[in-house]
Amino acid sequence: AKDDGKNTYQFYDKKMTEMALQKIQLDADIRKALKNKEFVAYFQPKIDARNGKVVGFETLIRWMHPQKGMMVPDEFIPFCEETGLVLEIDKYMLIQSIKQIMKWQKEGLEFGKVSVNVSTKKIESSNYIEELTYIIDSLQFDTSVLELEILEGQIMKNPQKSIEILNKLRDLGISISIDDFGTGYSSLSYLKKLPVTKIKIDRSFVIDLPTSKDDVAIVRTIINLAENLKLEIIAEGVEKREQLDFLVNEGCYNIQGYYFSRPLPADECKEFIIAHSKG
Ligand code: C2E
Ligand code: CA
Ligand code: CA
Ligand code: CA
């Protein structure tokens, strides 16, 4: 029995060393990926379901890993939040997004607003506003087409501080959207104070529409809340006609999801914009 115990310890010890090594390796790989420009911006269209026109895009990161192929954010963003590498990643993705926006503007395309995901770790970092101002100024970028998506759960960890920073972002002309709304337990008193213009209904409430009575009630409540607070509303993760019909019927017209399009590489967006633009 004594020996067994010892073996178990050795086993766990070995496991932990392995995991630690894996993390060190991943950390090194991500730093290298930033240097080698292996991170790429994909763009998922947002559609006004009443007329089928594109009203914007969301930038979503993809990692074109030289050995493992295309990796999605869930495989590395949570780790980057832990280590702080998300600060570099979010900066890189913002710059990529702005460059793409300016390219589309030069081509005379109409695409609404482009939203970029940003971790609160990033917006709460000490030099964030300075860094952002520098990027905007040096690229001579018109911020009115830029939106930042911030997770509701992350805002609510430190709402007082978030309000302060979001006010500065608003002063820079940037719109703010609360991402994954309904999952982060906003207190209504804070929601009223947040300088946000849009809320995004999380995919988890959309999946079982319109059959789940609970989700029907939740989504109705969120849409009513947005109407009462004069906030724009969008739903994500819409894949099926029944989900779309329910949302439109309830007054949520802006839709993002596979029903209209998956996230697209930049070079496929131009065609999409032209096919789904006004006029
Ligand atoms: P999110 O912000 O909630 O983004 C929406 C996710 O839902 C995306 O996953 C998108 O591809 C997926 N999606 C969109 N429509 C549908 C649909 O109809 N069905 C299904 N099943 N999925 C759909 P993705 O691209 O894997 O991103 C996952 C998360 O990673 C994002 O969730 C966001 O929180 C985070 N993320 C992505 N890019 C960045 C970034 O540049 N910076 C940071 N900090 N986070 C990012
Ligand atoms: Ca998002
Ligand atoms: Ca979301
Ligand atoms: Ca989500």
TrEMBL record:
Domain EAL residue range list: 23-277
Organism encoding this protein: Sulfurimonas autotrophica (strain ATCC BAA-671 / DSM 16294 / JCM 11897 / OK10)
Residues represented out of the complete protein: 497 to 775 of 776
Domain of life from the UniProt record: Bacteria
Protein name: Diguanylate cyclase/phosphodiesterase
